[in-house]
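Let's do one together. I've listed all components of the complex below, 226 residues spread over two lines.
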Amino acid sequence: DVKVTQSSRYLVKRTGEKVFLECVQDMDHENMFWYRQDPGLGLRLIYFSYDVKMKEKGDIPEGYSVSREKKERFSLILESASTNQTSMYLCASSPPGQGWYYNEQFFGPGTRLTVL
Amino acid sequence: TQLLEQSPQFLSIQEGENLTVYCNSSSVFSSLQWYRQEPGEGPVLLVTVVTGGEVKKLKRLTFQFGDARKDSSLHITAAQPGDTGLYLCAGWPGGFKTIFGAGTRLFVKA
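Okay, and this is what the predicted structure of the assembly comes out as:
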């Protein structure tokens, strides 16, 4: 079974702090994703990475950056946290390739971040 | 902008009832997935449908992909409290991006 783990389940930070969210997958997947989930808005893609050191912006990259130094690890960074970044953050990974079956994503348990 | 609209947004039913959840779009998708998310957890993949008109069954859950591959439905027969959760549909138009619906929150009362 694919396992995707996230560094924290709950996190409380102050406005202006730098926040690191880490995600690790154990199935050698090349694609990794960071989403945020807000009630009524569904999952919105922040960034994704298709290989080590490669990244692409998603729909809402403003205020976020990412790092992928190793294949299994994808980090999301909030350079200066703001209250509107309070949300559930979900990491996901998927196998390589472009066929439909390679779009199936495996999610971590999520990090509920509160910025005060 | 590609959108997936799910209906209803909320559903509260008694154990044993049947229900159908809908996922609609004006866009065509190469495939569509359904996920279930329990409180405090990440979404878990239930099924992927690929072919227009395709029907897949997973125990008491029946998934259908529309003929034009723009919409999908999830039917649950004899719902149980363990079916409680947020059901998300996700359409894949190709490439790296997946379009997620906002979800249907289902509560099944014992």
